[in-house]
C-alpha cells in the first residue's frame, strides 16, 4: 500500500513496513506478553537481543 504516493519514499516505506513486520512477529509469538507496544518495549529492555525494538 503506497500512501505516500512517491517513489522517493520507497526506502522509508520499506523500513517502516519491516519494523511493523518485526513487531507483528513478536506479538504473534506471545500476544499476552506484548499486547501493547509499550509492553513489548519494556519486556525487551532486559534482553540482549531486541528483535522488535
UniProtKB/TrEMBL annotation:
Organism: Rhizophagus irregularis
Source organism phylogeny: Eukaryota, Fungi, Fungi incertae sedis, Mucoromycota, Glomeromycotina
Annotated GO CC locations: cytoplasm
Residues in Glycolipid transfer protein domain copies: 1-48
A molecular function (GO) term: lipid transfer activity
Pfam family, one: GLTP
Matching InterPro entries: GLTP_sf, Glycolipid_transfer_prot_dom
Protein name per UniProt: Glycolipid transfer protein
Amino acid at each position: 500500500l503506497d500512501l505516500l504516493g512517491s517513489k522517493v519514499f520507497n526506502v522509508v516505506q520499506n523500513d517502516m513496513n519491516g519494523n511493523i513486520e518485526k513487531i507483528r512477529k513478536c506479538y504473534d509469538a506471545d500476544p499476552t506478553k506484548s499486547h501493547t507496544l509499550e509492553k513489548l518495549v519494556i519486556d525487551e529492555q532486559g534482553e540482549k537481543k531486541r528483535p522488535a525494538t
